[in-house]
Structures are given as structure tokens and as C-alpha cells.
Design a protein that fits this description.
The structure holds three protein chains of three kinds. Chain A is an all-alpha fold. Chain A contains seven helices and no strands. Chain B is globular, with a radius of gyration of 22 Å. The chains are: A mainly alpha, B mainly alpha, C mainly alpha.
């Protein structure tokens, strides 16, 4: 059952991802990307991470994608022809291809995980609640990164306003 | 809630955060009326942060569940970062006046960029490494594109951002694999997993993961083949930002690279078989490509961009030849730190010279430097000092740095690598001399003297004095470097 | 049974599609979307590892990646908008008074 759900959403995600890359119209690409986001959110639920699933839908689909669509409409760019690459992209292409190949070989060959397991079994998570557990971590062990993120958002916002506002 | 001791140990960061927010507040409330004063507020903040970092010297602690290291290695970079910040603020004031309406916000972004540099130096956890690198990157993108009416500045920013976002995604993939094989985000635990595991598939995966992380760090340091953004970003960015980009991200990129490799890799001794040749190749490619392309440049900002790519290659030699055992004065690591410290003043100094000319005349093309010695004798003379130092010719700071880096390479038996390094230094003399030749031996079209602003003159004198001082009296720097490595072990 | 390898496999595929998207498209908006796809692939890997390691650090990491990605998109789009104000197209190839 679990596996069936995985294959369903995995194939949706892959098809939509390909669509995003292939489609000519920027708005269509953005919508395909939205499908990927939602499919991944479904997988997160499957993986006992409802908090991340909700954040995924809210932040990626709700905020980031809307921003993309707004900018696309604002700029209404010419449809690009999609052929050819910049010369600085070629070494990266080689690198990514290589990494991909190595990656798949390794994943196929090996059991990845260390034998020790953490305390958060599915039963325990069901008992205390995923949101509570992640929230508690954010405000204890990960307090510093959390605070840094808030500063980062503030300063990035200031910079964005300076660059983008009408004069 | 962190206790008082913790807050004390992160006081340099807190000072910068408070001053950054204060500048923002002043800029919002009083707008144009206080813009001139905000640079001075930033200077005070940076000076206080520097004092706080110096004051903490000798501390050794792991904060926030072990993810934030306050040790002498980190403090070394927390001393370097505000010094760079102070010099950049000094050279920005006059430059910005004519070019943007948002001078206050500029200093906010700069202050937080310095804060991000400090956090990178202290990161001992995969999450902190990611967050602080991203923080510094966003500040850098925004600063690069800060002249929003200037098309070159915009284009530089978009190229920088796209390239940076790709490499940071690649690096994140590496981090996720490291998390997967070790089950922890702390560098120490990752190292422990490496050393315990005899499984070859884990080791192969670790190799892939660390290579991916190297891609992300290579971008910040502008190592070949992750350097392509640098010339465009350097040329298009406002010149004080170029000066900052050429030293700031590079220095702390090395801080993360050193901490990452020296913490995790010793767990996998056979790793050296793959890792060392890879770094040797990258180092040679970086030096050689940077220098050869620099030979053809006619724009002084692009010339310095390629020169600074090459400089990263020299520094990498120190990491290749690193050997923390034994009591030799050439441990490789101290070479990198000494080199970075010398490079900080040298490269900033060279950019101050560029700004001094650009501010008064708008000139950035080398042929137009003709007869500079008659128009601005001080700037022309100091160009020679900084170029000697960049080429590694005594009696300058750059020589001291190269001496220790090449010395470590010789000690560890990397004779070919050291030879290529020396050869590259010789090549670099040619293009540095090209600038000097124009300035001293060509006849100027326009002979009117160039007026250099007092603050720019001040930064010129300070950087030049430091370049010479490090060369004649380097002992404090040796000790500084020796202590910081002792605490990293 | 669903294993971590399934998920890492999916993550690798999505990451590569994103990487190829960056490499073959020249519209910076689409390049940027492809980068977001790469980040999502990484997130999937983190969540999968967190699930099978029974360790929530991965989820916290993903939460912060989400937040930071939002800032990244805002910064990137602001720069694209500023660039567009200067001229009519946003094709990176034509963005070149700077040499590539």
C-alpha cells in the first residue's frame, strides 16, 4: 500500500518536473512546478512529516510560486527558444551528469543508513505529535539557526525593497 | 534562553547585529538627513566587534548544542572580518555619494555581511555551515546589484546569483548525504562515523558527498572550475563591493573549508589517496588559469578579479600540504592563515588604489592609467607596493605568505606543485608590471592632478603600512597563526 | 516495502532534472525554477533520512531550507525586476555587455 502511494506520487512528481523543464511557456512551467511541490508534500505525509508537508504547501506553493507567477506577469518575457547553453554552464553539465551516474550506482548498490537509530520512532511521534517535536527542537537545540533565519529574512527584505521599489 | 556566558562568547556577533539594526532604524526614521553619519555608526560597530573578538582571544567553547565553535581558529577570522569591513566602509563613503540614494541600506547590508562572515568561521555543524554561507551569499548578491540604475551592476548580480544558487543546491545535496550516512549534523559526529565505518560503500558515498560540498565552497573561494562568476561579478559590482568580494567571502570560505576538511577527513586515512590529487589539480588549474587569463585583461577590475582567482590557488597549496603533526614551522595551515592575512591588506589596498582613481576620473581601463605617476604620485607609488606583494616579492607581506605556503609544500614533498606555484608568481609579474608600466612610463593625455579624498588616502596609507609591517615584523602574525591552529586540533 | 533507497532514487532523479533544466534553459526565471526543483530534491532526501534514522534534525534542516529558499527567491526576483527596468528582454545570453 505504502509502495503504491509512493509510486503514484513519485511518477506525478517526475512527469511534472520534466514538464517544467520542457514546456515553452513560463506560466506552464510554474504550474508544473506547483504540481511537483504538492506531490512531494504528499510524500512527506507518507514519511511521517506532516509539519514539513504543510510548510511545503504554504511556503513553496503558496508564497514562492505566487511570487514567480507575479514576476512572470509583470515582465511578460519573450518565450525563449530553449536551444544552446551558456559556455559557463558546460563544466557544470559534465559535473552534474557525473554526480548523477555515481549517485544512482551507489544508491542501487548499498544500504545507506547507519545502524543506530534516533529516539523518534513513528509510534513516539504519533504520541507527542510531529509539530510539537519539531517545534521543541527549533526552540532548544536549533535556537541559534532559527534566530539567524529571522535576521536573514529581515535583511533580505530590506535589500529586496531597495532593489525593486519604484523610484 | 542562552546564559550570560554564552552571550559573552558571541559578543562580536551581537554587537554587529545590534549596530546593523540600529543603522537600519536610523535610515528609516531620518532618511537622507543622516546618511553621512550612518557610515560612522557602521565604523563604530565594526570597531567594537573587532575589540570584542580580540577580547575573546583564548576562548575555547562549543555553544548551542555544539554547533557553534568559539575557538582561536574562529576568532582569527572574526578579527579579519571587521578589519575588512572597516576598510570597505572607509572607501565606500565617497564612492556611494554620487551613485545611489540608499547609502544607509548599503551599510546595513555590509554590516550583516560581516556578521555572516563571523558565523561562517564558527560553524561546526552542517546546518550552520549552510545557513551562514547563504546569509553571506544573499548579502553579496544584493550588494553586487546595489546600483540599480546601472545595468552592469544588475547583470553582474543576476549572474552571481544564478551561479551561486546552483552551487549551493549542489552543496546541499552533499550535506544531505553526509547527514544520511552519519545520522547527525555535527561535524564531529560525521567525522566519527567516517572513522568507525569500514564499509566501502559508505566511504564511496562520503567521497561523493565531500566532493559536492567542495563545489559549494569552491564557489565562495572562486576555485576553478567554479570561478566563472568572479570576473563578471567583480567588474559589474560597485568597486568597494568588488574589494569586499575579493577578500571577505574568500577568507571565510577558506575558514569553512579548513574546518570541514581538517575535522572530517582524518577519519578516513585512505581518503587522502583521492582527496590530495584532486586538490593538487584544482590548485594548479586555479593558479594557472587565473594568471594566464589575467595577462589579457585591459580592465583593471577584471585584471584584479583573475589575479584574485590565482591567489586562491596559491592558498590551496597550504591545504594540500597540511600536516598538523610535528613542530615544524611549516604546517601548511599556518601558511594559509598568514597568506590570508597578508592578502587581506594587499588586495584591499590594490582596490583602494583603483577606487582613488575611479572616484576622481571614472577611469578603470589600464591604458588610460598612462602617466598616473604625474597625476597622482602617491597612488602610483603604492600600486607598486601592492603589486609587489601580490606577486610575492620581498619586502612585502605577500612574500611572507608565499614563503610559508611554498615551504609547507616543499616539506611535504610536493616539489612539482611548489615549482608551478613559483612559475605562476613569475607570470603574474608580467601583468602587474603592465599596470605599472602604463602608470610610470607612458605619456598622459591629460595631465591634470587627481584629487584623492582624505578617507581614501587614509585607507591607502593604512593598508600599505600593514603590507610593509607584516614583512619586516611578522612574529606576531606567526604566533597568531600558530595559536589558532593549536585550538583547531 | 518502501525503503529509503526508493526515496533517495527519486530525489536523485528530481535533482538531475533540475540540474538539466538549469543547463538547457536560458530564461532566468525558468533557470531559477529549476534551482527550486533541485532544492526540493534535497529536501526530499533530508526528510527521507530523518524518517529512517528516526531523528528529526533532518526535518528542522528542511524547515530552514524552506525559509531560506523564500528569501533567495525574493532576492533573485528583485534583481531580475531591477534588470528588466533597464531593458526589454531577460534572456541571459543577451544580458551581455559583460563578457561571458
Amino acid at each position: 500500500m505504502e509502495l503504491a502511494i509512493f509510486y503514484l506520487f513519485a511518477s506525478i512528481a517526475i512527469v511534472a518536473a520534466l514538464g517544467m523543464v520542457v514546456l515553452r511557456n513560463a506560466v506552464h512551467s510554474a504550474l508544473s512546478l506547483a504540481v511537483v511541490f504538492v506531490a512531494l508534500a504528499a510524500l512527506y505525509v507518507l514519511l511521517n512529516a506532516p509539519f514539513i508537508a504543510a510548510a511545503q504547501v504554504m511556503i513553496y506553493a503558496g508564497a514562492i510560486l505566487i511570487l514567480f507567477v507575479f514576476v512572470i506577469m509583470l515582465l511578460s518575457p519573450r518565450v525563449d527558444q530553449g536551444a544552446g547553453a551558456l559556455k559557463w554552464q558546460r563544466p557544470l553539465a559534465a559535473l552534474c551528469g557525473l554526480v548523477f551516474a555515481v549517485e544512482l550506482a551507489i544508491v542501487a548498490a548499498s544500504a545507506l543508513l547507519p545502524t543506530e537509530r534516533g529516539p523518534f520512532t513513528p509510534e513516539r511521534l504519533a504520541e507527542i505529535g510531529d509539530v510539537q517535536a519539531v517545534g521543541a527542537l527549533l526552540f532548544t537545540d536549533f535556537l541559534l539557526p532559527f534566530e539567524i533565519t529571522s535576521l536573514l529574512l529581515l535583511v533580505a527584505m530590506v535589500g529586496v525593497i531597495v532593489l525593486a521599489k519604484k523610484r | 534562553m542562552p546564559d550570560a556566558q554564552t552571550l559573552w562568547l558571541i559578543s562580536p556577533e551581537l554587537v554587529l547585529a545590534i549596530f546593523g539594526l540600529a543603522i537600519l532604524l536610523f535610515a528609516i526614521i531620518w532618511r537622507e538627513r543622516v546618511y553621512g553619519a550612518l557610515a560612522w555608526v557602521a565604523l563604530v560597530g565594526l570597531a567594537l566587534a573587532l575589540a570584542a573578538a580580540v577580547n575573546l582571544w583564548g576562548a575555547h567553547a562549543r555553544l548551542f548544542a555544539g554547533m557553534y565553535a568559539v575557538d582561536m581558529f574562529a576568532l582569527f577570522f572574526k578579527i579579519v572580518a571587521p578589519i575588512a569591513g572597516i576598510l570597505v566602509v572607509l572607501i565606500s563613503m565617497d564612492y556611494l555619494r554620487e551613485r545611489t540614494r540608499y547609502r544607509g541600506e548599503f551599510f546595513v547590508l555590509l554590516t550583516f555581511a560581516i556578521l555572516a562572515m563571523m558565523m561562517m568561521a564558527s560553524s561546526a555543524n552542517l546546518l550552520m555551515i549552510f545557513l551562514s554561507i547563504e546569509f553571506l551569499s544573499y548579502m553579496s548578491y544584493l550588494l553586487t546589484g546595489f546600483l540599480r540604475e546601472d545595468r552592469k551592476s544588475n547583470e553582474a548580480a543576476i549572474k552571481y546569483l544564478l551561479y551561486g544558487a546552483i552551487t549551493s543546491a549542489v552543496m546541499l545535496y552533499g550535506l544531505s548525504l553526509l547527514y544520511g550516512i552519519s545520522g547527525s549534523l555535527n561535524l564531529g559526529d560525521v567525522a566519527l562515523t567516517f572513522s568507525k565505518s569500514a564499509d566501502t560503500s559508505v566511504q564511496t558515498l562520503a567521497l561523493v558527498a565531500t566532493a559536492l560540498v567542495l563545489a559549494g565552497l569552491g564557489f565562495k573561494i572562486s576555485l576553478v572550475p567554479f570561478h566563472q562568476w568572479a570576473p563578471d561579478a567583480y567588474e559589474g559590482a560597485p568597486t568597494p563591493v568588488t574589494a569586499f568580494l575579493s577578500v571577505g567571502p574568500k577568507a571565510v570560505g577558506f575558514a569553512v573549508l579548513l574546518r570541514f576538511t581538517l575535522t572530517t577527513l582524518p577519519g578516513l586515512p585512505e581518503f587522502a589517496n583521492y582527496w590530495t590529487p584532486l586538490l593538487v589539480i584544482i590548485s594548479i588549474a586555479t593558479m594557472t588559469l587565473g594568471n594566464l587569463v589575467a595577462l589579457r585583461q585591459t580592465n583593471v577590475k577584471r585584471l584584479l578579479a583573475y589575479s584574485s582567482i590565482a591567489q586562491a590557488g596559491y592558498m590551496l597549496i597550504g591545504l594540500v600540504a597540511v600536516n598538523l603533526g610535528g613542530s615544524s614551522p611549516f604546517s601548511g595551515l599556518n601558511g594559509v592563515l598568514i597568506y590570508l592575512f597578508a592578502y587581506l591588506f594587499t588586495n584591499l589596498g590594490a582596490f583602494v588604489c583603483v577606487i582613488a582613481i575611479e572616484n576622481a576620473t571614472g577611469i578603470v581601463e589600464i591604458p588610460e592609467y598612462a602617466g598616473l605617476v604625474k597625476r597622482a604620485p602617491l597612488v602610483a607609488a603604492l600600486f607598486i607596493v601592492f603589486f609587489l606583494s601580490l606577486a610575492g616579492i620581498p619586502p612585502t607581506a605577500g612574500f611572507v605568505g608565499k614563503f610559508f605556503v611554498f615551504g609547507a609544500a616543499l616539506r611535504e614533498g610536493f616539489l612539482v606543485l611548489a615549482a608551478i606555484g613559483v612559475l605562476n608568481s613569475v607570470i603574474s609579474v608580467f601583468y602587474y608590471f603592465g599596470v605599472v608600466r602604463a602608470a610610470f612610463f607612458l605619456e598622459p593625455k591629460d595631465t591634470s592632478p587627481i584629487r584623492v579624498a582624505p578617507l581614501v588616502t587614509l585607507s591607502l596609507v593604512v593598508t600599505a603600512a600593514m603590507v610593509l609591517l607584516i614583512a619586516v615584523y611578522p612574529e606576531p602574525l606567526f604566533n597568531l597563526a600558530a595559536w589558532s591552529m593549536a585550538m583547531l586540533k | 516495502m518502501l525503503t529509503v533507497n526508493h526515496l533517495i532514487f527519486l530525489s536523485a532523479i528530481l535533482f538531475s532534472i533540475g540540474a538539466v533544466g538549469v543547463l538547457v534553459r536560458r530564461n532566468p526565471l525558468i533557470m531559477f525554477m529549476s534551482i527550486e526543483l533541485m532544492l526540493n530534491a534535497v529536501n526530499l532526501a533530508f526528510v527521507a533520512f530523518a524518517r529512517y534514522l528516526q531523528n528529526l534534525d533532518g526535518q528542522v534542516f528542511v524547515f530552514l531550507i524552506l525559509t531560506v529558499a523564500a528569501a533567495e527567491v525574493a532576492v533573485g526576483l528583485a534583481i531580475i525586476v531591477a534588470l528588466f527596468r533597464q531593458r526589454e528582454t531577460i534572456d541571459v545570453d543577451e544580458a551581455s555587455i559583460l563578457k561571458g
